[in-house]
Specification:
This protein is mainly α. Helices cover 59% and strands 4% of the residues. The strands form 2 sheets. Strands 6-3-2-7 form a 4-stranded mixed beta sheet, sandwiched between helices. A 3-stranded antiparallel beta sheet has the order 1-4-5. The longest helix is centred in the last third of the chain and has 29 residues, at 574-602. The chain is globular. The two termini are 56 Å apart.
C-alpha cells in the first residue's frame, strides 16, 4: 500500500505534504510562490490582514514542482507560520504546521519537528478540535504520529496513532481507504519496534479494508502493495509459506491489471525475491531481483539508493546460488515476469537445500506459566513478557473471542484495554513487579446502559476465562483455550497470577468489567474530566492521579467513548499548565536556590534534606509540564517518577533533557552534603565538595530553565532566580480566574 498516496486523500483538506503535491498550473503557482517569497525577504515586518490558505498551498506546490524544496521550502513555511499567526487565522496556521511536519520529516529534521508537533497539538487543543471527531483533528494526529515515528519516538507515535483511529472510526466509513492507511502506519511502527505479530494484524486489517473498498481487487495496485507489505512482515515471523503466497499474489495482481511498468512493481518483485531467498530458492530470488532492477532503472534510473540496494541484494542472491550449485537462466531480465509464479503456487526447492537454516524444522522453546495454586508467585515471576503484552494477548486470544461468542450484539460497544494503577500500566514492570497483583488481566469498559444489561454476567464470564499460558523463545504468548489438568489433577485457577493485595480488590480492583464513568471516578474522583473552564478543579487533581487515568493501552474501543473520556483527562487547559509551571518555579527558587544553601550553612541537615526533596519534586514536575502532558503524559507517582523522567529525557524531542540526570546527581550527593561532616562524604573530603557541587547543579538547572522559558516566549527576562520569572509566565495566562494567579 502506498502510504503517502493514501495519506494524501486524508490530508487534502488541511495538508498537501511535500510528497503529495497536487498538479497545479505551474506558472500561476510559481507566481504565487515568488510573491510570498518576496514578502518573506522584503516585507518581513508587515503583517497581512488575512491569510490565504489556498495561495499558500499553491505556492508550496510550485516550490516542489521546481524541485527547489531543499533551499526554498523551509523559509517559505517559516514565513507562512508568521503570516498565519499575525492574521489570527488558526485554521490556516494549522494547515501550515501540518505541511511543515511533512517537510521536516522528509528532510530528517526531527529535532526541529518536535516544536512543530508540540505547537500543532497545542493549537488543535486551543481550537477545540481535541474533543471532536473532525478530519482536521485526525489529520493533525496522523501527521504528528508519523513525525514521531520517523524520529523513532515510538511510544508517543503509537498513542497518537491510536487517538487518530478513535477519531476516524467516527468520521469515516468502515471501508474508507484512509482507515487502511492508518492500519498500515501502525504496522510500520510495530515492525520498527520488533512486534511483527501486531504488525501482521494491522496489515491484515488494512488489506481487508482495501479489498472491500476496491472496484476490482484483482487489479488494484493498493491491494497488491498490501500483499507485499504483509508478505515481508510474515517473513520476519518465519511464516514462509504464507509469505510466499502473499508475495506471489501481489505479482499476479500487477499482471492482471497490466501494471508492470509502475514504480511500485519493483517493490513487489523485490519482496517476492526476498521471500524466495529466505526459502533458499536462489534461482527464483535472482530472477525476481533482476526484474526489480529493470523496473527501477526504467522508472528512476541507476543513480539512486533504491537501485544500489537492490543491486546489492541481487549480488548476494547470485553468490548464494553459485555456492549452492544452482544455474540461473539469464532470460527475461528485461522485465518479462512470465517466469514468476502465480499466487498459491509452490516453487521447487533448490538442489542444495537441506534441513538447516531458514527451513529447518525446529520447535521453539517455551516457558509455561500456570496461574493460581501453591507456588503461583514463583511461577509467574519467571514470566518473560511485560504485563501490557500479556494483557493484550489475553484479550486477543481469550477475551475478544468470548465476547464475540456470548455477547455478539454488544461486541461493537465494549472497550477493552489496561489502564490505571499498577506498574505494568506504565510499562515499567519487571520480574520484581510480578510477586503481587500480576497476571493475565484486562479491563472491559461499558456505558451505564450496557453495564445494567450485561455487566454482572460479563464479569462472571471474565473471571471464568482460562489463564494458563506459555511464552516461546520469541516472546509470543499462547493461552490454552481449555485449561488442562496438571499433575495433581487439579485445574489451574482462574484467579490472578500472583497474590492480590487488598489495595487491588473490591472497589479498588484493577481489572474486570467497569462502567466508564465509574472507572475514571475511582481514580480521579471525576466521571469525566473537569471542564476547560473549571481551572480550580484541574488544580485539585495531582499529576500522578492524571497519569494513572491516562496511562496504559486501549486494545479496542468501537464507540470511541472510553478514549474520548480518557483524552479529556489528557487535555489539561494551557492556563492550568502555565499556572503550575509558575508554582514549580516558585518552589524551585524557594527550596533549591534559597532555603537549601541557608540550611546547609546552618548545619541543619534535616532541613537541607527536605529542601532537596522539594526541589527535586518541583523540578521533575516542571520538566513534564514544559514538555506538555498532551504530548508526553503526566509525571507518575514517586515510585516511577525517575523511570518516566529517564524515558522522557532519552527522547530526541525532549525539552530540558539533562535535568533528570542532574537531579539524580543531587540526590546521590545529598547524604554527604547534609550529614557528611568534616571526614565523611566522597573520598573522605567531607561535606564541602558535595555542597559546592549541589549548589552548582541547582544554578545550572535554573539557567537551563530560563533558556527554555525564553525559547517558549514565556519570558523576556534573563533573571536566574526563578521566583522573579513567575510574573512573566503568568502574564501568558489568558483567564482572569484568580485561582490561576499566584502573585
Amino acid at each position: 500500500m502506498d502510504e503517502e498516496a493514501l495519506l494524501k486523500q486524508f490530508a487534502a483538506q488541511f495538508a498537501h505534504g511535500p510528497d503529495d503535491a497536487d498538479d497545479t498550473d505551474a506558472a500561476a503557482a510559481a507566481q504565487g510562490a515568488d510573491s510570498t517569497a518576496n514578502q518573506a525577504t522584503d516585507d518581513a515586518d508587515q503583517s497581512p490582514a488575512t491569510f490565504d490558505t489556498q495561495q499558500f498551498l499553491n505556492g508550496l506546490d510550485a516550490i516542489f514542482d521546481r524541485h527547489a524544496a531543499a533551499t526554498e521550502a523551509g523559509p517559505y513555511l517559516e514565513q507562512a507560520m508568521v503570516d498565519a499567526e499575525n492574521a489570527g487565522d488558526e485554521a490556516g496556521l494549522l494547515t501550515v504546521l501540518n505541511e511543515t511536519m511533512g517537510f521536516y520529516r522528509s528532510q530528517g529534521r526531527h529535532k526541529e519537528n518536535q516544536w512543530i508537533v508540540q505547537r500543532a497539538l497545542e493549537l488543535a487543543a486551543r481550537m477545540g478540535l481535541t474533543t471532536g471527531t473532525s478530519e482536521a483533528w485526525a489529520t493533525t494526529l496522523i501527521n504528528c504520529a508519523t513525525s514521531m515515528r520517523a524520529a523513532k519516538q515510538y511510544d508517543q507515535a503509537e498513542d497518537l496513532y491510536h487517538q487518530a483511529q478513535s477519531v476516524c472510526r467516527h468520521s469515516l466509513a468502515p471501508t474508507d481507504r484512509r482507515l487502511a492507511a492508518l492500519h498500515n502506519n501502525l504496522s510500520m511502527l510495530y515492525s520498527e519496534t520488533n512486534r511483527p505479530d501486531k504488525a501482521e494484524l494491522e496489515l491484515r486489517e488494512a488489506l481487508r479494508i482495501i479489498e472491500a473498498s476496491s472496484v476490482n481487487p484483482d487489479a488494484d495496485i493498493d491491494v497488491a502493495s498490501s500483499h507485499t507489505n504483509l508478505a515481508l512482515t510474515l517473513l520476519t515471523e518465519h511464516k514462509l509459506e504464507d509469505a510466499h503466497w502473499h508475495a506471489a499474489k501481489a505479482l499476479e495482481i500487477y499482471r492482471t491489471g497490466h501494471l508492470e511498468h509502475s514504480a511500485h512493481y519493483a517493490s513487489a518483485l523485490a519482496g517476492f525475491a526476498q521471500v524466495c531467498f529466505a526459502e533458499r530458492r536462489y534461482a527464483d530470488a535472482v530472477t525476481g531481483y533482476r526484474h526489480a532492477l529493470a523496473v527501477i532503472e526504467e522508472c528512476y534510473g541507476k543513480d539512486t539508493d533504491y537501485w544500489r540496494i537492490t543491486a546489492d541484494n541481487l549480488r548476494q542472491a547470485e553468490e548464494a546460488a553459485a555456492q549452492a550449485g544452482v544455474t540461473v537462466d539469464n532470460a527475461g531480465v528485461a522485465g518479462d515476469a512470465g517466469a514468476l509464479p502465480q499466487s498459491g503456487s509452490r516453487l521447487s526447492n533448490s538442489p542444495a537445500q537441506d534441513k538447516t537454516g531458514a527451513n529447518a524444522a525446529s520447535s521453539p522453546s517455551t516457558v509455561s506459566v500456570s496461574t493460581g495454586s501453591a507456588g503461583a508467585a514463583e511461577a509467574v515471576s519467571a514470566c518473560p513478557v511485560s504485563g501490557l503484552k500479556l494483557a493484550r494477548a489475553f484479550w486477543t486470544q481469550m477475551g475478544k473471542p468470548m465476547i464475540a461468542a456470548k455477547y455478539p450484539q454488544y461486541a461493537g460497544r465494549i472497550a477493552a484495554g489496561l489502564v490505571g494503577h499498577g506498574s505494568e500500566c506504565y510499562g515499567f514492570d519487571d520480574a520484581y513487579s510480578q510477586d503481587h497483583d500480576f497476571g493475565p488481566r484486562f479491563c472491559l469498559w461499558l456505558t451505564d446502559e450496557d453495564y445494567a444489561a450485561i455487566g454482572e454476567q460479563l464479569e462472571a464470564d471474565y473471571e471464568a476465562l482460562p489463564r494458563k499460558f506459555s511464552v516461546d523463545a520469541q516472546g509470543h504468548v499462547t493461552f490454552e483455550a481449555h485449561a488442562r489438568s496438571d499433575a495433581s489433577g487439579a485445574f489451574p485457577s482462574a484467579g490472578a497470577g500472583s497474590p492480590v493485595t487488598p489495595r487491588a480488590q473490591g472497589a479498588n480492583r484493577r481489572d474486570g468489567v467497569f462502567r466508564i464513568g465509574d472507572f475514571f471516578e475511582s481514580i480521579t474522583g471525576y466521571r469525566t474530566a473537569p471542564a476547560q473552564t473549571a481551572p480550580h478543579e484541574w488544580l485539585m487533581l495531582q499529576e500522578s492521579t492524571l497519569a494513572a487515568a491516562t496511562n496504559g493501552e486501549v486494545f479496542a474501543d468501537p464507540t470511541g467513548l472510553f478514549s474520548k473520556t480518557r483524552q479529556g483527562f489528557k487535555n489539561m487547559p494551557d492556563d492550568v499548565r502555565l499556572a503550575l509551571i509558575s508554582r514549580r518555579l516558585g518552589m524551585i527558587a524557594q527550596a533549591g536556590q534559597y532555603n537549601l544553601p541557608r540550611s546547609l550553612k546552618r548545619g541543619d541537615g534535616a532541613a537541607a534534606w527536605l529542601s532537596i526533596h522539594e526541589f527535586v519534586q518541583a523540578t521533575a514536575s516542571l520538566v513534564f509540564l514544559v514538555n506538555v502532558p498532551m504530548v508526553v503524559g503526566y509525571m507518575p507517582y514517586y515510585k516511577w517518577q525517575f523511570a518516566a523522567l529517564r524515558k522522557l529525557s532519552g527522547s530526541m524531542f525532549a525539552l530540558l533533557p539533562n535535568v533528570g540526570e542532574q537531579l539524580e546527581t543531587v540526590m546521590r550527593l545529598s547524604s554527604a552534603a547534609c550529614y557528611g561532616g568534616a571526614g565523611f562524604g566522597e573520598g573522605g573530603k567531607g561535606a564541602a565538595p558535595a555542597i559546592e557541587k549541589i549548589n552548582d547543579i541547582v544554578e545550572q538547572i535554573a539557567v537551563d530553565i530560563v533558556k527554555e522559558l525564553k525559547r517558549e516566549h514565556l519570558t523576556t527576562s534573563g533573571e536566574t532566580f526563578l521566583e522573579w520569572q513567575r510574573p512573566y509566565v503568568e502574564d501568558h495566562i489568558a483567564s482572569d480566574d484568580p485561582v490561576l494567579k499566584s502573585l
